[in-house]
Design a protein that fits this description.
The complex is a heterodimer of chains A (about 775) and B (about 220). Chain A is of the alpha+beta class. Chain A contains 18 helices and 29 strands. In chain B, strands 2-1-5-3-4 form a five-stranded mixed β-sheet, with helices on both faces. Classes of the chains: A alpha+beta (about 775), B alpha+beta (about 220). Chains A and B meet through helix 1 and helix 16 of A and helix 3, helix 4, helix 5, helix 6 and helix 7 of B.
């Protein structure tokens, strides 16, 4: 009989969890090999945790010395270039590369095996040449003959009964048992579904039902996707602009049929990804594998960076979403039922769900029905984009809640308080509404005489109106346990943290130095974090806001083991027991007698051998205070009712991100998420040409993103929560603060104008049309 | 050999016409004047180049540098691929994002829209010329202190544009900062922190924000 695996022994701690203002005892059972977690009691004792610290790599980045993948040049390196399909749906009849091959300077050519084109921008061919210009010339010389097919463009076109089919029904990339018709697969039923919505709506005294639409956004990281591939015999080195070093290694090794051990992937600095750089190449291209093949063929390193147009077409995007939301409540505001239905399009990919917020934000609502459909279109496949599906879903859901509040005649903030299940978010409402001065809002939407508006001591200019809006967001406590970390103390007392993870601009490198330094009792400046290399201990891909709380517990555990070893050396010097020692500010002293002390360096100098190395696997995740991360946002907007132009004036984001490691970089991420979210709300829209099915705006001026001229006052308020689940009680913050932004801005526009806009982006034409409809009504 | 005419479907590349200079001339006049003045001398001295590679003499960060490139090569590519000055970044490839901003005789230009050949005879300053990691300029130091960067790919462009802005407006208002940086895009969302950094650098005791001109 097979033996059941023995459960690993666990320890037992009673911790002080939750909010500092209302701590709660929480029993946790970490692995016995883990250490006592940081909790609320630890907060006042921290020396480095929670203190603002500028990022380590800052000086390299601001002086142009940081070398990104795009900046690296190897001896004899060639320049690669992809050739993408120019049509959205076709059969490839022939690819003629003879002219390209004949061009002087061209060293290698690759052509796809695939014969079916399902989106414009799909990989067709590639070239490698001695200069970027020659590579571009050669790419233009590749001749492709297509037999074009009818295509399904944007979401609402593809949902029509007579729309051309993107896939045969049995080939749709969705679970087999999902119902399918035309280009539509679903409904998928959400795990949070419960109760009986018919009964709930029967109990309701006020019901709102509305339909909302959010277009496709592209990630548009400033450094395009790309790699440099270089072979030495069977050893392959890849410099990659990636959020997931190991996904590149494993994906490329598998595609090429080579051993992982022979593939090394490096990424020291990386120019943005937002979820699009989590795979071996991109969701809509295999450029990494192609670069490796070109390099092998040419016998030289090949740098292959996508251009800006390709970046928009084949590296992913956020699904569009059409949502219908029906929500009912008693007259006192008690919500009795929610029916949320969404159709999302991830292009040729599945997984366009948006129901996360609907499932998570209605904790007290007994009756929830949630249905999600995937709609296939002839457009590039989506990729996770900063809280995948959630900003869209929150736009639909939180706009509908705002409309319900209007119908009920209840302040939208009060309506949310009444139905709030999270004690964390309840505390956030106070902080956020105070920071935005919520009492200034127009008591009657569209009537600024019912609000309180002064600008520079004066009233608003004629034709300008202002309003306030708010919305909620949710996120989850995810962590990757497939994570290792190593701490090395050298004989000279210098310390390294080794982590096979990448810093995608979050400040991860600095955070790991802070965590290790806190545990070792030394200064973070004395810790060097080595990362961005698959030769270091394996770390997770940076997605799901999990990097920090996946790796930090491993780094802390490794640092703790190193500390024990250094303290044993110090104990021998001090004639004390190691367990009686304290460490802070680079000194190890006997508890209660600060005169008996040695420096960390003096203790390390006594080691036998040249270094103390502690390599650990991340300890198992355990009990948490809550399994969700709460957030809420408030927005002030100004609308010019003559031109329809919307300007965000101020935003306040209140977020839970566990115990904060570095408030400076944490708040930078929160502010950045608000800016990206405001950009989606006001400007961004991937436009496909209705007649030819290609993207109309694959650049950075027509695919308009928020610029410095559009910038607003952005305030981040962090609510520390000892959430536990890991020994550092940390949580990621990259994604949660973008979830409420679209809805908060749209709700503020309603408060300013009295005109409800249910389709994004909030462009002047839509604003003017909504204003004229509101006037007619 | 005469310079090839541009293909009919593409606008001719005018060194004087960058998105920034257009924005500047639309809003603020002084920088545009410098730039138009600079480019007028380029137009006045037409030289037949190419199509084969030519050797150009560029004055970069105060030093005379020689590059051998096809005449169609942009200043951005010459800096990055020939001189390993990779601070200026290729991002939008058409003057729309400011990530490749360098100073040409002190005025900001997008180097993806300027041919290397047309930069001959001008003082080129890249982000590398403004400071080193060990000795950052006041603005660079303020960027680090205020955390005015995340992934950092747009940062060199903002640092260069901000340096030009401060040279023109030593004590800029928020609106002047926004206008001066309007041609630059950041995707991580660092604008607010960048404004703080520019304001902090304006208040800092100021050694020359721009390196002193050397030679002609």
């Amino acid at each position: 009989m097979p033996q059941e695996p023995k459960p690993e022994p666990t320890a037992n701690f009673t911790t002080k969890a939750g909010l500092p203002g209302s701590p709660q005892p929480l029993e946790v059972k970490p692995l016995a090999t883990d250490i006592k977690p940081w909790d609320l009691d630890q907060l006042p004792k921290f020396e480095h945790m929670g203190k603002a610290r500028s990022r380590t790599e800052g000086p390299l980045k601001v002086t142009g010395r940081a070398k990104y993948t795009y900046d690296i040049k190897l001896p004899g390196m060639l320049y690669g270039r992809m050739v993408g399909a120019s049509v959205p749906a076709a059969e490839i009849l022939a690819v003629d590369t003879s002219k390209a091959e004949a061009l002087p300077g061209v060293k290698a050519v690759w052509v796809t095996d695939s014969r079916i084109v399902r989106f414009a921008g799909q990989d067709v061919a590639a070239v490698a040449a001695t200069s970027p210009d020659i590579a571009r010339d050669a790419a233009r010389l590749v001749e492709v003959r297509y037999k074009e097919r009818p295509f399904a463009g944007e979401l609402r076109e593809a949902m029509k009964k007579d729309a051309p089919g993107v896939f045969f029904l049995d080939r749709m990339p969705v679970p087999r048992d999902l119902p399918k018709t035309g280009n539509i697969a679903g409904p998928r039923v959400n795990r949070n579904q419960r109760g009986d919505v018919d009964k709930g709506f029967a109990e309701a005294e006020v019901v709102h039902e509305g339909s909302y639409y959010c277009p496709v956004h592209t990630h548009a990281p400033l450094e395009t996707h790309g790699v440099i591939a270089s072979w030495e015999g069977d050893q392959l080195t890849i410099y990659a602009s990636t959020q997931a070093l190991f996904a590149v290694r494993e994906g490329v090794a598998e595609a090429l049929g080579v051993d992982r051990k022979n593939v090394r992937v490096l990424c020291e600095h990386m120019g943005g990804g937002f979820g699009s750089k989590l795979g071996p190449s991109a969701t809509g291209s295999a450029f990494s594998v192609v670069a490796c093949r070109l390099s092998k063929l040419a016998g030289a390193p090949v740098k292959l960076m996508l251009d800006r147009q390709q970046e928009h077409l084949c590296t992913g995007n956020a699904p569009s979403a059409l949502m219908t939301v029906k929500v009912g409540a008693k007259k006192d505001g008690t919500i009795t039922a929610l029916h949320y239905k969404s159709w999302g399009s991830a292009g040729v990919a599945g997984g366009a769900g948006t129901a996360g917020p609907a499932g998570a934000l209605h904790g007290k609502n007994p009756n929830l029905k949630i249905e999600e459909y995937d709609v296939f279109t002839n457009a590039g496949p989506s990729a996770p984009l900063r809280a995948p599906g959630h900003p869209q879903g929150a736009f639909g859901l939180e706009s509908a809640i705002d409309e319900l509040a209007e119908k009920l005649g209840i302040d939208p903030l009060e309506l949310r308080r009444k139905n709030e299940a999270s004690p964390v978010r309840l505390s956030q409402y106070d902080a956020g509404s105070k920071a935005i001065a919520w009492e200034r809002r127009n008591k009657k939407a569209g009537d600024i005489t019912t609000g309180s508006w002064t600008v520079g001591g004066k009233g608003l200019a004629p034709s300008r109106v202002r309003g306030l809006g708010m919305a909620n967001g949710n996120w989850y406590v995810f962590a990757s346990e497939n994570t290792n970390a190593q701490v090395r103390v050298h004989r000279d007392g210098s310390v390294e943290v080794l982590t096979g993870c990448q810093d995608i601009g979050t400040g991860y490198r600095t955070a790991m130095a802070i965590v290790a330094a806190e545990e070792l009792g030394i200064d973070p400046a004395d810790v060097t974090v080595r990362l961005g290399d698959t030769q270091f201990p394996e770390g997770p891909g940076s997605g799901g806001s999990t990097t920090l709380n996946s790796v930090a517990p491993a780094v802390r555990l490794a640092a703790s083991q190193a500390r024990v070893k250094v303290h044993e050396l110090a104990a021998a010097q001090l004639g004390a027991s190691a367990s009686d020692l304290d460490a802070a500010r680079g000194k190890i002293s006997v508890r209660g007698d600060a005169t008996k002390a040695v420096t960390f360096k003096q203790a390390a100098a006594r080691m036998s051998g040249e270094s103390i190395d502690c390599l650990v696997k991340r300890p198992k995740q355990y009990e948490t205070y809550r399994n969700d991360l709460a957030g809420t946002q408030f927005a002030e907007v100004e609308v010019d009712t003559g031109t329809g132009v919307v300007r965000v004036v101020k935003m306040v984001s209140v977020n839970d991100c566990g115990i904060v490691v570095n408030p400076l970089t944490t708040q930078s991420q929160v502010i950045g998420a608000m800016i990206q979210g405001a950009s989606w709300a006001l400007f961004e829209n991937r436009l496909l040409d209705r007649n030819v099915g290609t993207m109309v705006n694959p650049n950075l001026e027509w695919y308009k993103v928020l610029t410095p001229s559009d910038m607003f006052e952005a305030q981040s308020i962090l609510t520390p929560v000892a959430n536990l689940g890991n020994n550092t009680s940390t949580a990621g913050i990259g994604e949660p603060p973008i979830v409420p932004t679209l809805a908060a801005v749209a709700n503020a526009v309603f408060n300013a104008t009295g005109a409800r806009i249910r389709e994004l982006p909030l462009t002047p034409d839509r604003v003017l049309q909504a204003l004229s409809e509101a006037r007619r009504a | 050999m005469a310079r090839k005419p541009p293909p009919p479907d593409e606008a001719p590349q005018q060194p004087s016409f960058s998105r920034r200079s257009f924005l500047k001339s639309a809003g603020v006049s002084a920088a545009a004047t410098t730039l138009v003045g600079g480019s007028a001398s380029v137009e006045a001295a037409p030289t037949a180049l190419g199509p084969d590679a030519v050797t150009l003499s560029l004055k970069v960060n105060g030093a005379a540098r020689s590059v051998t490139v096809e005449p169609r090569v942009t200043l951005l590519d010459a800096l990055r691929n020939q001189l390993d000055l990779t601070g200026a970044k290729p991002v939008c490839e058409r003057g729309g994002c400011g990530a490749c901003t360098v100073l040409l005789d002190g005025a900001p230009v997008v180097s993806c829209m300027l041919l290397a050949a047309d930069a001959e005879g001008h003082e080129i300053t890249t982000v590398e010329g403004l400071g080193t990691p060990e000795k950052m300029s006041p603005l660079q130091a303020a960027f680090v202190e205020k955390d005015a960067l995340q992934c950092g790919f747009c940062t060199p462009g903002f640092v260069v544009a901000g340096t030009a802005l401060l040279a023109k407006h030593p004590n800029p208002t928020l609106d002047e900062i926004k206008a001066g940086l309007a041609g630059n895009i950041c995707r991580c969302g660092t604008y607010g922190r960048i404004f703080e950094a520019v304001q902090a650098a304006a208040k800092a005791p100021r050694p020359a924000l721009l390196p002193a001109k050397r030679g002609g």
